[in-house]
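Quick illustration, no need to memorize.
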Amino acid sequence: MALHVIRVIRELADQGSPAMHRPRNFFCAEGDDARCSKWEPNTDIFECADHVIIRLELAGIQREAISILLKNGRLTISGLRKEKRPNETIYYHQLEIHYGLFRKVISIPEDIEHNDITAVLDDGLLEIKISKNSQVVEIPISVEGAESRA
């Protein structure tokens, strides 16, 4: 049995499997998705006239397992894809689907309206729609000399 496992690991390494090159963090606490996410979902970002759409591929993930947070100009999407294993002994022949904690962080430009954001999960795609601001607020700041502060 041990030889079978070693053979599979060697085959994965020979095929250049991403699983063999993914670093593992052994110091992760349960639920610490900030440091311990194991994968990032494939993401498309595109812009329309009045909004930006961010679409993430999240097949097999329940709506309740997804968290979305906008803070300091960063949109963080995180969650968990649980692996459904059969109750019997199994031998893997191919492993390409990522399971476990995921996290995706996207910088949001300042011309994006932070009030009008919607998120819909449909057919394994999470679509986040963010309205664009009609105008970016600019505040001119005058520069004073050191002598004027004395």
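The helical segments are 2-14, 33-36.
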